[in-house]
Write a structure and sequence with these properties.
9 helices, Nucleotidyltransferase, domain 5, alpha/beta
């Protein structure tokens, strides 16, 4: 994975940022993106696509990544904003903002997936980048751990939805709760149209506020 990143190094490209997001699929909560830059000599052996790691291992690597990276930026886009601009645009905005938040700016940005955002620094999309690029995989871990912690905290305010377990994803239990008591203010209303119709959604929502 480090070899993949270093293959882009040239006289003009000395620092590479890996960028990824977490939370495109959930019914509730934000989408979170992270951007990470490492020195070309730095490598953390167990860094991998966050989906391939246990929660415990992600937490361990999260601390190592923050300790060894040159810069890290994180951006959180709310469910309300997702409903307004759609999840793709929200994800790209989160990734752009994550890059902007870093104290150090890279010479090249590698983004997981097949879409990019406009920036004054070159941006390259890498399909399955979190399995190919060390920096992108590290960003995927930072984004995933950050979002999971957010959902665990939010679960304290809306315990019925069991976000501490499902992180807002459409599990059978989560869907049944939504059908029974309606969505919370932190649910993505545009994601619920196949679960409950707009009229029912509005009626249930009014009963929760």
């Amino acid at each position: 994975m480090k070899h993949f990143d270093n293959s882009f190094l040239t006289e003009d490209i000395e620092l590479i940022a890996g960028v990824d997001e977490a939370g495109r699929g959930p019914l509730a909560g934000p989408v979170v993106a992270a951007s990470v830059i490492f020195s070309p000599s730095v490598f953390i052996e167990e860094v991998n696509d966050s989906k391939k790691l246990s929660a415990k291992k992600r937490d361990e690597l999260y601390e190592q990544i923050l300790d060894k990276c040159l810069a890290c930026g994180v951006s959180v886009i709310s469910a309300g904003k997702i409903d307004k601009i759609n999840i793709l645009n929200a994800s790209l905005l989160a990734m752009l903002n994550a890059v902007k938040k870093m104290d150090v700016q890279p010479d090249l940005i590698l983004v997981d997936g097949n879409k990019t955002f406009n920036y004054h620094i070159p941006v390259k999309a890498v399909v399955k980048g979190d399995s190919k690029s060390f920096a992108v995989a590290a960003a995927s871990i930072i984004a995933k751990v950050t979002r999971d912690r957010i959902m665990k905290r939010l679960s304290g305010y809306y315990p019925d939805y069991l976000w501490e377990k499902n992180k807002g994803y459409p599990t059978k239990q989560h869907i049944e709760v939504i059908k029974t008591i309606g969505p919370s203010p932190l649910h993505r209303k545009t994601f619920l149209r196949k679960i409950i119709d707009d009229k029912t959604q509005a009626e249930l929502y009014l009963n929760t506020v």
